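chain below, 139 aa
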Amino acid sequence: MKLLSDGRILTVGNYVAQYLSNGRSDSSFGTAGKVPLDSLSKPLSLHGTSINILSNGKIIVSGVTYLWTGRTSIVGGFVLRLRYDGSLDSNFGQNGVTLLNAVVQMSTVQSDGKIVTSGPITLGFTDYVFVNRLNKKVV
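prediction:
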């Protein structure tokens, strides 16, 4: 969840939602205040775990990708960029989305405009924490 300087609130999960400072859905964002993440990268399902607001008002969302094959299989992570109005920014990644080989639990944007992600990874029977930096500036 992020609180914007004008009091609006952004949340992330199966969709990105924006609320006005009074708690009502912001109809100027997405469709009726929501952007369903599942519609952005078929056949993968996306679940957002982290959200960042850039200085230009664009929104970075990152999280987990799932491929449904009769049961849920976690296949990796993603980072995507939305415009201020909730529309996908196709100038980022591949049509607005960058897929990663590991689950993303958290992300941040460095002062130089590069995105850093982190999350768990298991190799064999050993658990690790990975840190990944996307080298393209997003601001």
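The chain has one domain: 2-104. The chain has a mean pLDDT of 91.
thats it, cya
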